Structures are given as structure tokens and as C-alpha cells.
Automatic annotation (TrEMBL):
The gene is pyrD. This is Dihydroorotate dehydrogenase (quinone). The lineage of its organism: Bacteria, Pseudomonadati, Bacteroidota, Flavobacteriia, Flavobacteriales. Substrate binds at K67, N112, R113, M114, G115, F116, N172, N177, N242, T243. One of its GO terms (molecular function) is dihydroorotate dehydrogenase (quinone) activity. The active site is at S175 (nucleophile).
């Protein structure tokens, strides 16, 4: 139903308008939406324990779709094992000027330059207070007007305010849509930032896992630095990867739009990053694999490359909730031998 009726209708609309309409309908339908779209797979064999948390299945929703924690319950009802909200910043901000979201249909991709548009961490916390049983990741960033030298404070504010309402944290320093944000991925500022958050974490009676979301455009040398930073700061793991600035091999007319590219064109590179981190670190930490998952096979490739969990974003928009079901069904099916 999604690909034959709903998607053709939504794809006639401006992408951002389609997003808001979808959320409005999801909120109205509530838990009934799963019966219209794709009934979730419920099976104990899908459960995963990763960085001390129990996930009902390993397929999550990546940050960026439910930035403000508006529809985490309804999205969870579609079958996701966990929902990552954000990126949230201390103060509300409108993000970049519209138009800022572009479908690349010929490439099964999306370019966005949203710019951390969100209603601020306090508003999200009020909605998260109503959460009963959805496993939530809190993706945090800095406000656009905050200079990099003061960025640590923004992350600390979000960390402190969200701490009681999320199950894990994601430090986003890899979005290409906030000026100079990716400079925080350099070894020195990143070690300082993660170290400060870990200090706050250790002051709590019970710690929360902190993960780092990285760009797919990092060099091998930079990825080796990431492995060192994870080891030095003792954070829980890495999310690989965010959107890319690369435009290699694209066919769509709007391929020259500025912003981060997600979807199928990112699949190969994100898997390469996952495999590199997993092998070079000796599987020293968990990795959440995200980027270009449009089929069950795409998800299995990420898991075989070293990911413990996977997340959907663009693939969910193109393929619909059925994709969550197909991945979980594939995980329950015995793999065929190539021999």
C-alpha cells in the first residue's frame, strides 16, 4: 500500500510539506497505522543487547526524521526497535532557509541542508516525559550561533536536560549543514568534547551510553583517530555514518544542491567505514550502521561488516514501513550458503 498509493501521492508534494503531512496522519492514526502499512515482526530471537541496553529488534530510526520527539510512539508502533530523536540544540532555531530538502528519485537519495532546525531541547523533554516504553536515543548538537570554542557548553546543556529521558546519547559533530561543525571531528576538540560529557556521565548514579556519529567523508587516518578517541574517552560506540558531501555517480537533475546526501548512493561508503572501524579496532566497540539501507540485503551487509544495529532514514522514506518488516524477517531466516 505504501509504495503503490501513499508514496506516489507524497512524492508529488514538496518534501518538507510531505514530511509534516505524514507526521500529522501518523499522530491521528496512532497505533492503527501499522495495520494500514506493515504489521511489525514480533519475535524474541530479534532481541539484541548492545552497550548495556536491550533492543527488541536491531532496526532503528535514524536521527533527523523525528527531530523534536513528536511521533516517537507512533513510529515505534510501525516496528522500529528504537527511535533516535534530534538533532536537538539548547535553543530553538529555524534552521537554514527553505527550500532545503530535495529528493533525488533517479538515485533513490535525498539531499538536505536543514541546519538543525528544531524547537529546542526543553520542548522535546516535555514530550519525552510521556514516553512509556520506547527505547530512545538523544542526538545532540550545537546552535548555529554558538562558536566552536564554546560548543562544548551546548552539548553539555543538552546532555544534562535530556539525561533522564533518553536511553543513549549521540554526539553529532558530522552534519555538513552547520557552518564549521565538522571541524569538531578533529582529534583535539573531539577528545575534549567527549571527555567533558563523560565526566558529566560519571557523576550520575547510573551512566548512559554515549555514541559518536561520524561523517562518511573521513580519511583512513581520521578513522584511525576516531578509534583512538573512542578508546581514550571510553565512550560506548560509533554511528557510521552521517550524510556525505560526495556527489559521485549521481544522475538526478538536482544533484548539485548543497547539503548532505543520504540514501542508496551512500550505501557502499558507509559499509566501508563500518568494516574499517570494526576490523582496525578489533571489534572493540559497537557500531550502529546507517546509510543507504533500502533492502533487507543492505541491512545484512552492514551487520556482516561489523554493525551491531542498523538505522533507517532515506530507505524508510522510499520503501516505507515494509522495509523494517523485511529486514527483521530476513534476520529470522537462515542465510543461504554461497558454497
Amino acid at each position: 500500500m505504501y509504495k503503490s498509493i501513499i508514496r506516489p501521492f507524497l512524492f508529488k508534494l514538496d518534501p518538507e510539506k510531505a514530511h509534516h503531512l505524514t507526521f500529522s496522519v501518523l499522530k491521528k492514526l496512532g497505533f492503527l497505522s501499522k495495520y494500514f502499512l506493515a504489521k511489525p515482526v514480533e519475535d524474541k530471537r530479534l532481541e539484541r543487547e548492545v552497550f548495556g541496553l536491550k533492543f527488541k529488534n536491531p532496526v532503528g530510526l535514524a536521527a533527523g526524521l523525528d527531530k523534536d520527539a513528536v511521533a516517537f510512539k507512533e513510529l515505534s508502533d510501525l516496528g522500529f526497535g528504537f527511535i533516535e530523536i534530534g538533532t536537538l540544540t539548547p535553543k530553538a532555531q529555524p534552521g537554514n532557509d527553505k527550500k532545503r530538502l530535495f529528493r533525488l528519485v533517479e538515485d533513490s537519495g535525498i539531499i538536505n541542508r536543514m541546519g538543525f532546525n528544531n524547537g529546542g531541547v526543553d520542548a522535546a523533554v516535555e514530550r519525552l516525559k510521556k514516553n512509556k516504553n520506547v527505547l530512545i536515543g538523544g542526538n545532540i548538537g550545537k546552535n548555529k550561533v554558538t562558536p566552536n570554542e564554546e560548543a562544548v557548553n551546548d552539548y553539555k546543556i543538552c546532555f544534562g536536560k535530556l539525561f533522564d529521558y533518553v536511553d543513549y546519547f549521540v554526539v553529532n559533530v558530522s552534519s555538513p549543514n552547520t557552518p564549521n561543525l565538522r571541524a569538531l571531528q578533529d582529534k583535539e576538540p573531539l577528545t575534549k568534547l567527549l571527555g567533558e560529557l563523560q565526566r558529566m556521565n560519571l557523576e550520575k548514579p547510573k551512566q548512559k551510553p554515549i555514541l559518536l556519529k561520524i561523517a562518511p567523508d573521513l580519511t583512513e587516518e581520521q578513522l584511525l583517530d576516531i578509534i583512538d578517541i573512542v578508546k581514550d574517552t571510553k565512550i560506548a560506540g560509533v554511528i557510521a555514518t552521517n550524510t556525505t558531501l560526495s556527489r559521485e555517480g549521481l544522475r538526478s537533475e538536482n544533484k548539485k544542491e548543497t547539503g548532505g546526501l543520504s540514501g542508496k548512493p551512500l550505501a557502499k561508503r558507509s559499509t566501508e567505514v563500518i568494516r574499517f572501524l570494526s576490523e582496525k579496532s578489533g571489534k572493540a566497540f559497537p557500531i550502529i550502521g546507517v546509510g543507504g539501507i533500502h533492502t533487507a540485503e543492505d541491512a545484512l551487509e552492514k551487520l556482516e561488516a561489523g554493525a551491531s544495529l542498523v538505522q533507517l532514514y532515506t530507505g524508510f522514506i522510499y520503501e516505507g514501513p515494509q522495509l523494517i518488516r523485511e529486514i527483521n524477517q530476513a534476520l529470522l531466516s537462515p542465510r543461504k550458503s554461497n558454497s
